[in-house]
Amino acid sequence: MQATAETTTWYVVCLCAQWCSTCRAYAPDFLAQAGLEQVGPAERYLWVDVEAHDDLLGDWDIETFPTLLIAQGDQPVFMGVLPPQIAVLARLVQSYKNEGAAPVGVNAAVAALWQQLRPRLADAK
């Protein structure tokens, strides 16, 4: 199978809530990460307020914030809670991009969630 922009794009999705003070403090750094020069078009950072977009999550109940989902194309490689420190997130993303780190927190349910989220987030700004 030939690699395309669709299969090689990295998605970094932060699942947070507006009422969460940790999320509000983390949001500017997370969203600024998307604008960094080294990120480029093959990396998309998306912020999802779990209450404003509960229709995207279906039966998922995100209880700990921030919860991150990282995927390459249609393959999720990480889902879990990270400290709200952008340097930690940047190192994690690089470990997947450069070293092909083993998937963490990914099972059939996470894969199904990503398949549900991805088409609806692909065109998000």
Automatic annotation (TrEMBL):
Q: Which InterPro entries match?
A: Thioredoxin-like_sf, Thioredoxin_domain
The name under which this protein is listed is Thioredoxin family protein
Which is a Pfam family this sequence falls into?
Thioredoxin
Look up and give the organism this protein is from. Comamonas denitrificans
| Domain Thioredoxin: start-end pairs | 9-76
